Amino acid sequence: MSSQDSPLWQSIDALPPAAVGVHRYVLVNQGALPGQGALIARLLTLPHQALLGQDADACADGVTPFLLGIDTGIATHRESLAALADAACYASALSVIDSPMAMRDLARVLTARTEVLLSDDLPMLLRFFDTRILFALLDQLTDDQRDDYLSCATHWWAADRDGEMVPCTRFDSEGGDRFSAPLRLSAAQEVAMITASEPDAVMDVLTSRRVPGFLAIPFPERYPVVVALVQRAREWGLRELPDLQSFALLAMLAGTAFDQLPTWSTLLPEVKAGNLTFNEALHRAAEQEA
């Protein structure tokens, strides 16, 4: 995709300039950008700092999230930043953060934001640098939790699924960090986060298996298609993620209306009634079609 056509680059380029005394950073989730090593190497001529307590070398390891300082980068590294936006357009991999904090300090407090305690006091690494997870999190936090979580930034934008930079901060902030790790999630917040993540987990399977019917769908249309499939699967009584993934995979291979075919219109009501597991239904369908 050329930068001329990239909505993400157009969105980044249209952001208002950072205020006086405030630095502008790009948070890069390079794990979502496979095969972009040469581009990352060019970008690392900008000031950079790895998260997760890693040293500078980790910024080129293909996995570790990192910050780029772009106080002057839009002007002096325009081509490389545009290429980054193009590569990341639908990857949910970029955030733009304005903060008065020095880069090393910002990397430290952002790393603290990966620390989460679930409702049963089980610790978890929260990969908020994946903006799909960030948006799901912000939707579930209380206003006070959200404001504290974003308090290291005067402004924070994140790339959404449509390749647009969306503001996350609710109002102008001074950028004084008020967050205290770990973030504690209630049981309801935890369940909502898991539920929100399920369509993405389904898409990951369809992508990794390179299902032709799924890959033929334009990027911005994939998520709504999968959300609809997951909803249909739930209407048939499916709740476990492997079952949701199998239902969507079957829909992509056999047709999205496969559940209306004679075999499945008989089996799925049995699944919904609890008389069959979905895995058992898959085996019975295979036997009937053999």
UniProtKB/TrEMBL annotation:
Pfam families: DUF4123. It comes from the Bacteria. InterPro entries: DUF4123. Residues 25-147 form the DUF4123 domain. This is Uncharacterized protein DUF4123. It comes from Cupriavidus plantarum. The lineage of its organism: Bacteria, Pseudomonadati, Pseudomonadota, Betaproteobacteria, Burkholderiales.
